[in-house]
Amino acid sequence: MPALDGLATYLPSESVPIADLQDGLGLTDTQIKVFRRFYGLSHVLREPEGTGTDLMLAAAGKLDALRGREHLVRYVVQARTMPTVAPYPVNPVHDVRDRLGLRHAEAFALFQHACASGLLAIDLCGRLLEADGDPDALALVLTGEKTFTPAARTVPGTALNGEGASAFLVRQDGDRDRVLGYVTRTHGRFNAFLPLTDDAPAEFQRLYPEALAEVVLGAVEQAGLTLDELDLILPHNVNRVSWIRFCQAVGYPPERVLLDNVPVTGHCFCADPFLNYQSARDLGRLQPGDRYLMVAVGLGATFSAMAFQH
Asked: Where is the Beta-ketoacyl-[acyl-carrier-protein] synthase III C-terminal domain (predicted)?
């Protein structure tokens, strides 16, 4: 199974109160109150001048584990939510690869699992590296997108999106942050999520906790654990209420879900679980040997959970 071999994140300096987004997103006063009081949102992060390429380069620039090992990188992968993130012929992942001096590496993007594509990238890179047969080879995975259109700035009635980035290395058979299990499921009948039509929104709300529990419990079981043995969940930062409801449904302590970033970053697309990993490290909430879960849900609707041992 693959493992993470170094991770770095970048958070923009501009913090925008969600009330400042009201006019641009056409939100009512009541909707802003719901986001703030019920969903636990307060601010979102914005990179006022930089591009998506700049976001990824800022994270990669802090990835100390890459220094001196550039020659080992075989793949550079952008895990993203949006199918299109730049006008033709700009290709951000190729630009990042070239500016990092990694022209020898294969570069491509994944977006098929939307905001869960970061976990898909770990699994895919692990498979590619295993097939290549070089135990020292690495893959560099990058996340980070701009909220460049109105549709990219919000998940209606669920989340407000921010800008943040992560960069991390994947290798085979690492000694730390080893993948113990990975479960993903796509409920294809919600493929036209924005906007959902007819009775689909209500049906999706009913499905959500059950579908989330399915992949979480599946990944935990695949890892040979019980839910009680799981030390921490690193979630996607859509809102607090969905996670509180999940914890109530499965009997998991909500204090063991790291929700610290929800009020201050917004939902940063594929970067969320990795931003939360960095926060958990900084806060001392991940100790050697801890078993933890990264969880993400992508529009479409793909539910994914990946279990690790720190």
From this structure: 221-309
φ and ψ of 234, to 5 deg: -105, 105
User: Contact 147/161 with Cβ under 8 angstroms?
Assistant: yes
Interval 278-296: pLDDT, tens: 999 999 999 999 999 999 9
Of 138, 151, 164, residue with least CA distance to 56? 164
Domain boundary among 148, 172, 196: 172
- The domain that holds 107 is classified in CATH as 3.40.47.10
Q: Structurally, how many domains does the chain consist of?
A: 2
Widest CA span in the chain: 57
Q: Are residues 27 and 154 in the same domain?
A: yes
Range of the domain at 212: 178-309
Question: At which of 132, 152, 172 does a domain end?
Answer: 172
Taking each helix axis from N to C end, the angle separating 52-60 and 92-99, rounded to the nearest 10 degrees, works out to 40
Say if residue 126 is in the same domain as residue 197: no
Q: Where does residue 130 rank: exposed (0-12), middle (13-18), buried (19+ CB within 10 A)?
A: middle
* pLDDT for residue 192: 62
Give the closest residue to 181 by CA, choosing from 5, 302, 2: 2
Is residue 269 within 8 Å of 161, Cβ to Cβ?
yes
State yes or no: pLDDT of 161 exceeds 70. yes
